[in-house]
Design a protein that fits this description.
Helices cover 34% and strands 28% of the residues. It is of the alpha/beta class. The radius of gyration is 19 Å and the shape is elongated.
Length: 222
Amino acid sequence: MIARRVPSAARRIHIGVSDEVDRPFVVEVISLFLKKHGLAQRPKVTVVSGNHEQLAERLRFRELDAMVTQLAMINPELENLERAEVPVALICSKKWNLKTRAAVGKILGGEDTQWLMPSSQFKLRAEINHFFEVHQLRGRIVVESDVIASLVRSVIDEIGFAFLPLLYVAREIREKWVCALGPKEGYWKYRVWLACHGQNKNDPLIKALARSFKEICDQAAG
């Protein structure tokens, strides 16, 4: 746990990551956070995962120092430090080279479109289901997973298409492994929060983590 008035290199920071949040995104945040410290000053970071309710309870009892989650904190003891609000796009393999609006329309309206979906328990899946219902989209679900990174990999491997927040495919877009289709502002916005215990919100390490979180999210939002 965080202990005040000790050198950062002697400190530890425990971060909880909700099951729904993409792990590579969190790794990017933590890597940036650690790079802002010199080699000799870097604190030890411990990352644990679990569902939102379990992690929020651990945060309340200060077993965790911070938490990355898809839901805002409502407990008055806990603090929502940062909120990312990023576009959700239609993600496909770069190899398909789909650029025209007509091509995108064919995917969205096609009965043979192969879809890659997050778990039915995820907030993102509920948002996708609503979008499908409103726009009467069809197609066949070929992959359903509670690991977002597996959906990203399936897109790269040309298995199908996925609606994903740009936050979760920023690196793959930069490396030109996938491309984002649809309006620049996205089909809708997806939100992710960084939270901490209210008593830790002014701690320098927590503030540094929050800045790294915001920087990575801002880059992805473009």
